[in-house]
Amino acid sequence: MGAVEKVQTRDKLNSIHVETLKNFSERAKAKPQEARLLTRARAIWKKAEMQTPSLQGPTRLATGEKFVMKTDLPSVFFGPGDAPHNPPPVQQLLFGAATCLGGSIMLLGAQQGLDIDELCVTVDSDVNFTRLLTDNDAELPASALRVKVEVKPDDAKTLAAVRQIAERAKRNAPGIYLLANPMPITCEVVGAK
């Protein structure tokens, strides 16, 4: 079960293949260790190839699909100021949090039979570069994350269900968990090959 299997059904709720989700959930209950997936992101910058403070990350999903993530430092943070930008790192982090929470709400909603027409998750934070650039430890680099979830239909029953689902997702969605809980970070510096 380590790799995500290809979908074999057309029955969807909230764009989630319900039967595949049900089968995966049952197997994860029986063998939790097999529901773990190594997740990795890389960021590469090479002077010869990138004349701006841009980073690129070739990425491979558990399904084997490949894509390249890109980011630029925006001009407000001394980057190139060229339009269009690749999303800056903090926006990518916030987008990752928003999509992780949003996707988890859709997933858990489908698991519970909740039909959602529209979902918008907004995540924001006030960032401060004083600490990074001046080593002034009195300043925090960022404020707590603020999350707003907007959903349709917006009837009382759906809103109550999504509130409950969002709380579960906030506690258990991997991307949100990584941000909300102080996880130890190891940093190994080695020569590039």
Number of strands: 6
Helicity, in percent? 25-40%
**Architecture (CATH level 2) name of the largest domain:** 2-Layer Sandwich
The CATH C-level name of the largest domain is Alpha Beta
User: Number of helical runs?
Assistant: 5
What is the name of the CATH topology of the largest domain? Answer: GMP Synthetase, Chain A, domain 3
Secondary structure category: alpha+beta
- CATH superfamily membership of the largest domain: K homology (KH) domain
**Cα-to-Cα separation, first versus last residue:** 33 Å
> In one word, what is the shape?
globular
Architecture overview:
Helices cover 34% and strands 17% of the residues. The chain folds into three domains: 1-37, no CATH class; 38-87, no CATH class; 88-182, 2-Layer Sandwich (GMP Synthetase, Chain A, domain 3), CATH 3.30.300. The strands form three sheets. Strands 1-2 form a two-stranded antiparallel sheet. It contains five helices and six strands, in the order E-E-H-E-E-H-E-H-E-H-H. Strand 1 and strand 2 form a beta hairpin. By secondary structure, it is an alpha+beta fold.
